[in-house]
Amino acid sequence: METERQQPIVEMRGISKSFASVRANRGIDFDVFPGEVHTLLGENGAGKSTLMNILNGLYQPDSGSIRVKGRECRFSSPREAIAAGIGMVHQHFMLVPVLTVWENLVLGLPGLEAVLPRKEVIRKIRELSDRYGLNVEPEAQVWQLSVGEQQRVEILKMLYRNAEVLVLDEPTSVLTPQEVRRLFDTILQMKAEGHGVVFISHKLDEVMEISDRITILRGGEVVETLRGGMATRETLAEKMVGRKVVFAVDKAVLNPGDTVLEAEGICALNDRGLPAIRNLSLSIREGEILGIAGIAGNGQKELCEALSGLRPIQFGRVLLRGKDMTGACPMDFIQAGVSYIPADRKGTGLVGAMNLRENFALKNFWRKPYAKGPFLSWENVAGETGRIVERFGVSTPGLGIPVRNLSGGNQQRLMLGRELSGTPDLIVAMQPTWGLDVGATEFVRDQLLRQRDRGAAVLLVSEDLEEVMALSDRLAVIHKGEIMGIAEDPRCVLEEDLGLMMAGIRRETFPEGEKYR
Amino acid sequence: MKPLFRIERRLDVPVWLNCFIPVGAVAVALAAGAVLLSFLGVSPFEAYKAMARGALGDAWGVSETIVKAIPLTLAGLAVGLAFTMVVWNIGAEGQIVMGALAAVAVVRYAFVDNSAVVLPLMFLAASFAGGLWAGFAGYLKARWNVNETITTLMMNYIAILLADYFIYGPWRDPSSLGFPMTTPFPGAARLPLLWGTRVHVGIFLAVALAVLFRVLYRWTRWGFEIRVIGNNPRAARYAGINDMKNVVLAMFLSGAIAGIAGMTEVAGLQGRLQPGFSGGYGFTAIIVAWLARLNPMATILVSFLLGALLVGGDTLQVVMRLPLASVQVLQGLILFCVLGAEFFRNYRIVPAGREE
């Protein structure tokens, strides 16, 4: 390859970094050439973020060297890193919501005049936007922008500062499929302009599509660096996890029983008071997984909350085993055997500052044998928490540590363990594998299938089409809070048809004969 | 230009640091205070010796420190309960006043010449008055999301002025020669004093409540619920915990305990109501709760230490003939350093050039 003869923009050699007793990086070599996309692939906790935070000046390595264009560098802050041409776009954006796009771009730039050169800045933004396909209105305030647009602002910010290497930390995790396409176009354009791009992800399809080279990390060490074209899903997953990974879901025959949940024409508002669920009806039987596919933000969260008592229902009825639960409080739903696995585990499903025991008690403190009169039996709580940790493979140094110190995958295992341990009647799972690595994803899916086989009714909401198609017994598509259609056999439905429904075209309006292909 | 140092967040706090930080902070404060004292022409060494002797040097000093620690502990527990839920009850001062007013009202209008009857009555009235005063702010927050920091703060002034109205007006002691104070309590309405000092039986109440709170937070369902609400209100709702109800309930209890502090002050110490009788205990309690990191047992200890600081300050004024203002500056210095030192618990400073 041509890149071999060029000088790399960034060359990291023998990087090691420890935090207390954890060796996050051990002797890692990593480089980026101009005009290439070099992917860092690895499970949560493999050391990707640590390595990139070292490159970005947030952390200092214990040992090892960083060269930028042949010159030895040592960054003690992101400011120094960007001055050397290295820019990072974090998973969580670092923008000031009340400022405009252009103000955010110049914020913190050294040597600014007292009166900001607004016209000049906006002109330059427009130029960059056009060149890289990063459409954003420079005068818009950041809070008005969608997540995808905010990400574009972050990328623009780095390009504005003449970044030669862009580090994108899990950039696709917040994007819709269409936005992912646009991001990839931008990345290709950056490549063409001679930038180096470091792409961090654990979504294998994306990685294979966009990467020129792929470096796989595991346990803080480099497993291998491969050429993008030589990788297959299976080899990547195997190297990343360290063992063979089965992608096919092994599913028992559907054996549905009585109807558990019935929603009849429900309507609900979102947090801003606008209609989010409109006249939606669905039902789920025992031993059945009803999948809900759809583009993010089409009422999925509101639906889950309405079905677990967290969001008031304006019209319509919710029946649980024939009992009217409309207007019941969250505790009534919990006591009726409804388990809700929220997408936002850190914000809703767990209390970060509390330890594993207390997080188990969160949903069980009212229940015997954990509640004894007005008191809590921490002994009984600890016993069951220990069993969950063991059964669900939560890796933790102990039950007494705050759960925010656990990795995302372990948090999800703990939450899942808690929600599934009480043999729930209905499980409402929202994006249960979001942000998880391959190993944890496999585990979560398997657990949901087990619950289904045990006879629980499962509502599975996911933006991962592949996931809902593989797991669901029936598959509904939601668009603007309405069900566009329900496929009775997800294995026989065409992805294009689902795409049409996701775009808001009702199944009944499909041409005759295409309905049950 | 390279910065000379940078600030890093601590990932874990070593045990020795937890002990060293407050000690170091007081040392810094005393050193700064020494400079101040020297300017005033006083030997800092002598001044500190006088302070220590005054507050802790003899039985009387210790007893006076305890006298101040009692209302501080009660009010510290009170605001600590609200703070545990991340509800900012800044109104303990007003709740103390309301509790005291209710106690006086019982003595004036429902007096029975029997301690066993009238003291429990005063106790109940004081806790209800303080509880309703805080519970009202809690209700406004739960019902319409009215900022409780503002309401509780403002209600302090209402309570204080209301008390002034009664003290200067209808409840003024006719035989007080015009001094603003209410009629002295009859003996039956006074709390028994202990050991021949001014320490009253409120001390048992304070310690018992601290133990009770410890059990509440650690071992009960309700204590767990309010801790969850404080840590993550969204998770609390998700777990089926009724945050509206709990906010009102916790605020009521918080105010009730502050009200009790007011009752023990009037019934234990002054035996009548005077303007400014609380002396800012309700505000100092915020510092107490914070320094004790909302831990009920630590609240007792911190109250004792702050009580010692107050008594030591009084001694300084008398023995060294220092103006009240300079004593307050000294007390302020110590509090400033102790609170400021909290920074070093969470962050550390790494000199430039030194890598970990």
Would you give an account of this structure?
The complex is a heterodimer of chains A (517) and B (356). Chain A contains 17 helices and 22 strands. Chain A is globular and about 70 Å long. With 517 residues, chain A is an alpha/beta fold. In chain A, helix 13 crosses helix 14 (408-421) and helix 14 packs parallel to helix 15. Chain B is an all-alpha fold. A two-stranded antiparallel ribbon of chain B has the order 1-2. In chain B, helix 4 crosses helix 11 (281-291), helix 7 crosses helix 8 (221-231) and helix 11 packs across helix 12 (296-319). The mean pLDDT of chain B is 85. Chain A binds chain B through residues 19-20, 60, 62, 76-77, 309-310, 329-335, 340, 342, 347-354, 358, 361-363, 365-366, 371, 374-376, 378, and chain B through 2-3, 6, 11-12, 219-222, 224-225, 227-228, 231-232, 234-235, 237-242, 352, 355-356.
Q: Total number of helical segments of chain A?
A: 17
- Cα-to-Cα separation, first versus last residue of chain A: 46 Å
Oligomer: heterodimer
Give helix and strand order of chain B, one letter per element, not per position: EHHHHHHHHHHHHHHE
Chain pair with largest interface: A-B, 36 and 26 residues
Strand order of the largest sheet of chain B: 1-2
Radius of gyration of chain A: 25 Å
Figure out the total of helices of chain B: 14
Please report which band the strand proportion of chain A falls in: under 5%, 5-15%, 15-25%, 25-35%, 35-45% or over 45%: 15-25%
Give the strand order, joined by hyphens, for the main sheet of chain A.
6-7-8-3-9-10
* Structural class label of chain B: mainly alpha
Largest sheet: number of strands, sense, barrel closure of chain A: 6 strands, mixed
Briefly say what this structure is.
Chain A has helices at 48-55, 78-83, 101-106, 118-132, 147-160, 177-192, 204-210, 233-241, 300-306, 330-335, 345-349, 356-361, 378-391, 408-421, 438-454, 465-471, 495-502; strands at 10-19, 22-32, 37-41, 63-68, 71-73, 86-89, 165-169, 196-201, 213-218, 221-227, 259-269, 275-285, 288-293, 315-320, 323-324, 338-341, 371-372, 375-376, 426-430, 457-461, 474-479, 482-487.
